[in-house]
From TrEMBL:
Pfam families per UniProt: MlaD
TM ranges: 6-30
Organism of derivation: Kineobactrum salinum
InterPro entries, per database record: Mce/MlaD, MlaD_Phospholipid_Transporter
Domain Mce/MlaD: 42-134
Name of the protein in its database record: MCE family protein
This protein's UniProt keywords: Membrane, Transmembrane, Transmembrane helix
């Protein structure tokens, strides 16, 4: 009877142990992500990844969607430099995709600007994590690696850019330039002219103060005259405002009179033009009178010449007229 009881207890313990093992296995599988729908991705970083370890979070805009599963160091034979290859798993349970399928969704997000970069988890620990976000304005740089997983393009962080700029600076040349600047400043400071500069500045300030006092006195002396000029100007402006309408009326009357005189003058000129026209009767009579005057003039000239040569002809007549 005791043997049967012991046998039953052993069987019960075996069953309970098997159940516990099965439960632990299920919990392990669920906890490790096995059995879930996941995407494996790979990222290539060309800088230091110190602080990034396997199991580090992968976050999309701050929301954890996966973790780092593997880190490898690869020698790039084309450019002969080292690159850091980081593999990660992305859980589909953390992202709600439109529609019923997540096929090719990662490729679509990469086309829309999905990029990966390293960020600090904590300043105290220095641990890193992979931050995913959309940067559509950045170019796509993909490394030629032998991997079956989708490659997410990477971009440097602001700290990495700053570090690279610092590393590209010629520190030795900058130090030399600073030494030259310091030497130049020291040389200027030790010159006698620089030492006398405070005294000269003091004299200049005193001169400025004296000039300011003179300006105040001049302004105070000329202010009454300026006030008088302003009052006279105001009076002149007021008088002009009163006289301008009257002067405008007189000017308008004169312009009217001048216009009438111009019309009369134009009419007179037209009449004169009619009188002196080549085909007018007045011109014909004038021309006839002028011809007769010319004939009379020639007759008088001939008479004067005859009297000059033969004065006696006035009493006797011309010699040609004798019998």
């Amino acid at each position: 009877m005791n043997d049967e009881h012991a046998h039953s207890v052993a069987i019960g313990g075996f069953i309970i142990g098997a159940l516990l093992i099965a439960l632990v296995t299920v919990l392990f599988v669920l906890g490790s992500g096995l059995g879930r729908d996941r995407d494996r991705v790979v990222m290539v970083f060309d800088g230091s990844i110190k602080g990034l370890s396997i199991g580090a979070p992968v976050a999309l805009r701050g929301v954890e969607i996966g973790q780092v599963t593997n880190i490898n160091l690869i020698l790039d034979s084309d450019q002969f430099n080292l690159i850091m290859l980081v593999e990660a798993e992305i859980s589909h349970d953390s992202i709600q995709y439109p529609g019923d399928s997540a096929d090719n969704m990662m490729d679509l997000m990469i086309d829309r600007g999905l990029r990966a970069q390293l960020n600090l988890q904590s300043l105290l620990t220095g641990l890193l994590y992979v931050q995913l976000d959309f940067h559509p304005d950045t170019p796509v740089h993909l490394s030629r690696i032998d991997s079956e997983y989708t490659q997410i393009p990477t971009i440097p962080t602001g700290l990495e850019k700053f570090t690279r700029q610092i590393e590209s600076l010629d520190i030795a040349q900058i130090a030399t330039d600073l030494q030259d600047i310091a030497a130049g400043i020291n040389q200027v400071v030790n010159q006698e002219a620089f030492r006398e500069l405070p005294t000269e500045l003091g004299n200049t300030l005193s001169s400025i103060q004296d000039l300011t006092g003179e300006l105040h006195g001049t302004v105070a002396a000329t202010r009454p005259r300026l006030d008088g000029l302003l009052r006279e100007a105001e009076t002149l402006v007021g008088s002009a405002g009163t006289e301008l309408p009257r002067l405008s009326g007189i000017l308008e009357q004169n312009l009217t009179t001048l216009a009438a005189a111009a019309g009369a003058f134009e009419q007179t000129m037209q009449e004169i033009d009619g009188l002196v026209s080549s085909d007018s009767a007045t011109t014909y009579q004038l021309n006839k009178a002028l011809r007769e005057l010319a004939l009379a003039g020639r007759s008088l000239q001939l008479l004067a010449k005859t009297l000059e040569e033969q004065p006696e002809s006035l009493l006797r007549g011309k010699s040609g007229d004798r019998p």
